[in-house]
Amino acid sequence: MERNGILGSGSWIVDHIKIIDEWPEQDTLSSVISSRSANGGMPFNILKDLARMNFPAPLQACGLLGEDPDGEFIQSHCRELGIDTSLFITSSFVSTAFTDVMSVASSGRRTFFYYPAGNDQIEPKHMRVEESRAKIFFEGYFGLNGKMDAVSENGSTGHSEIFSKAKSLGFITASDLVSRNVDFSSLTRSSLPHLDYLSLNELELKYLAGGDALNCADIKSEANIKKYASEILRRGINKFLIIHFPECVYAFGQDGSMYKQCSVDFPRERIKGATGAGDAMYAGVLFGVHESWDMADCLRLGVCAAAQCLTDDSASDGMADWRDCLKLADLYGFKEA
Q1: I need a labelling partner for 279 at 20 to 30 A (CA). Which of 9, 47, 174, 337 fits?
Q2: Is the pLDDT score of 210 beyond 80?
Q3: Are the CB atoms for 100 and 113 separated by under 8 Å?
Q4: Cβ–Cβ contacts within 10 Å for residue 32, how many?
Q5: In sequence order, what are the beta bridge partners of 149?
Q6: Contact 71/90 with Cβ under 8 angstroms?
Q7: Cα(123)–Cα(131) distance, rounded to whole angstroms?
Q8: Which residues contact 154 (CB under 8 A, 6 or more apart)?
Q9: What are the tens digits of pLDDT across the range 155-170?
Q10: Positive or negative CA dihedral for 315, 49, 208, 144?
């Protein structure tokens, strides 16, 4: 069977974005200026990014949603974007996860209040990968799904179970971590041998590699990046470890290769928000992986997609056709190494 397209699952979230006049002191009040709902979580963000980039192959969604307004928001939003929703499982016994995003109007600074709901109940049985003919399967995040994150006595997790199954079916597999300080070493150990691609930011690199004594500035020195990337690759990952910062993105190959791409030198006045920029970068990389591009070209689209994402305060509404994303590099150039 020739595989084609991308299937996404994991942390399905609706972001309820509220623009407020100021961040309040404890026990005081601030006013909501405006509010709206938008996509959140790795599968929703990446699939929407790919749809808006005019990805040239089928996009599919799978996972567990509640039979509630937020669950219907996700499904109807996906259908409007041309994303296949037939593999979703809905249940009246869970509610759909959401995040209240409080964004201060004057500064754009955001604070997140996350309600995990059904995301803590997702299990491999809710991910019907055997019914998909997609080429790439991604699931995430590690560290944000209660049952999937639970480590069994033999060291396996729900993540490792679904990635092992996906690999046996012939998928290219990919995942990401959430930026919270948990024991990622134990959480990912059984999954890394079944993963082809893993994406990390500087915080996640620090947590996964065990660099707790280092601050993020030290983590971002190239010597430390190479050191920790090498350590993680020894634990698994079949193809590439992607490490991204606001300034640049690296790809370290299991074959010893290394690629580096600096970010677009995007004008500050055009930046509306950074929500979803990491997922947008990963969407660009997976776009190129699906199309069998060289990793250098994958990273170039990745940083251009991340820059395009900055034009809106939501995770994906600023995204544009992939060719228009690439034009940002010609228009603004890249930051200095």
Answers
A1: 337
A2: no
A3: yes
A4: 10
A5: none
A6: yes
A7: 16
A8: none
A9: 999 999 999 999 999 9
A10: positive
Q: Is 295 left (phi over 0), alpha (psi -120 to 50) or beta?
A: alpha
Residue 57, both tokens: 């192959």
Largest CA distance in the chain: 60
Asked if residue 171 lies in contact with residue 148, where contact means CB atoms within 8 angstroms, the answer is: no
Q: In this structure, what token pair is assigned to residue 113?
A: 């209040």
CA neighbor of 284 nearest in space, from 103, 88, 45: 45
- The two structure tokens encoding residue 1: 């069977």
One-letter amino acid at 20 equals I
Which percentage of the chain shows pLDDT scores above 90? Answer: 75
Q: Write the CB contacts of 250 (distance below 8 Å, at least 6 apart in sequence).
A: 225, 229, 242, 243, 244, 258, 259, 260
Express as a percent the part of the chain with pLDDT over 70. Answer: 98
Is 25 exposed, middle or buried (CB count within 10 Å of its CB: 0-12, 13-18, 19+)?
Answer: exposed
- Rounded to an integer, what distance in angstroms lies between the CA atom of residue 81 and that of residue 316? 12
Q: How confident is the model at residue 183 (pLDDT cuts 50, 70, 90)?
A: confident
Name 149's Cβ contacts closer than 8 Å, sequence gap at least 6. 142, 143, 157, 158, 159, 182, 187
110-115/97-104 β-pairing: antiparallel
pLDDT average, residue stretch 132-138: 98
Neighbours of 293 (CB within 10 A): 15
DSSP state of 142: B
